[in-house]
Amino acid sequence: MPILVTGGGGYIGSVVVDALSARGESVVVADDLARGHREAVAPDVPLRIGDLTDPGFVRQLFAEFSIDAILHFAAWSQVGESMREPGKYFRNNYVGVLNLLEALVASGGRSFILSSTAATYGEPTSCPIDEASPTLPTNPYGASKLQCEQLLRWFGELHGLRWTALRYFNAAGATAERGEDHEPETHLIPLALRTLVGGSPLTVFGLDYPTPDGTCIRDYIHVSDLADAHLLALDALGRGEGGAYNLGNGTGFSVLEVIAAAESVTGRTIPWQAGPRRAGDPARLVASSGLARERLGWSPSRGDIRVIVESAWRWMERHPRGYRGA
Ligand code: UDP
Questions:
Q1: Is the pLDDT of residue 325 over 80?
Q2: pLDDT 10s digits, 194-205
Q3: CA 243 and chain centroid, separation
Q4: I need a labelling partner for 247 at 20 to 30 A (CA). Which of 37, 128, 170, 290 fits?
Q5: Strand runs labelled E in the chain
Q6: How far apart are CA 47 and CA 92, in angstroms?
Q7: Is 308 in the pocket of ligand 1 (CB under 6 A)?
């Protein structure tokens, strides 16, 4: 039975599709290609293009394929944009999950894995953040994902759905084939590297945070380590074990440390200037991923920030204009 991967043309989804295919799973991708890329989906993987907020499109997917499990990546995922266009976030992120869950349950399918986020926690009350921390999102992106998690809980309780929510910290890095290609790009590592292939100088958002060098600290996690966690979570759901798990390395790096890593990997100077703080950025977000390690047997192996940045740089060297230039 094929696994439906929504958003399989996007950054993390495309890496997970490759990982599933590599272990012999049958995969179907649904993507509206608004931010995903046709070129990021291997030609032998069926790709259906459409909008998951349209129940008709979702019905068509289930009519065409016998879907037993869904890995759901398709979502809007930018904090800043969600502060400007909250309705867009709640509609797309929540309604998409609702349509998928109703179709999955109606067809007798069982398993659902949600791409969730550290943004479900909001301003952390303790660091590192574990899954028992309060979930008080400070932006519509995090709030919409928390609502999706609540949908999963209710469908689990009332329909016997097996579900897992994976709360990513800062996804980063690339595989040999797939990398980060957002337009507009808002993430630190690709923006820092783009300065070396014709991009504008980087602006560091705030040098006055209560951290050792004054810049924000984040927990960067390699996209292949995230993919490993999805495969393990799928296996665990097969045994009837689900839940919400943080996915991070448990180590934080400041913006200036990331820039230093990029300079060391590339051997070049990254041009940057200081700018004001970005609205909604907490000073420090670092995961405790003990639960995922213990329950899923997850063991991220690419936690060195240089390894992460180097993989992103190799991909950017090969794809200086992203997939368009592929
Ligand atoms: N950041 C920055 N300049 C940029 C983009 C990001 O200083 O052009 C900082 C941002 O304020 C945050 C960190 O880099 O502290 C990571 O931001 P990113 O957007 O990559 O991920 P987020 O933490 O928002 O998920």
A1: no
A2: 999 998 999 999
A3: 17
A4: 37
A5: 3-6, 27-31, 47-49, 69-72, 111-117, 162-168, 170-172, 202-205, 217-218, 220-222, 243-247, 253-254, 272-275, 284-285
A6: 20
A7: no
| Tokens 């696994």 -> residue | 3
Tokens of 17: 């599709």
Residues facing 12 on adjacent strands:
none
Amino acid (1-letter code) at residue 175: T
Distance of alpha carbon 113 from the chain centroid: 12
- What is the token pair recorded at 317? 């060297």
Q: Is residue 54 over pLDDT 80?
A: yes
pLDDT at 137: 94
Q: Tokens for 182?
A: 């957002």
326 pLDDT above the threshold of 70 = no
Does the beta carbon of 202 sit less than 6 angstroms from any atom of ligand 1? yes
Residue 129, pLDDT > 90, answer: yes
Strands 243-247 and 162-168, sheet pairing: parallel
pLDDT of residue 27: 98
The answer to whether 86 and 138 have CB atoms below 8 angstroms apart is no
188 C-alpha to ligand 1 centroid (Å): 5
Reduced to 3 states, what is the DSSP secondary structure of residue 167?
strand
Residues known to be catalytic: 141
Cα(300)–Cα(293) distance, integer angstroms: 9
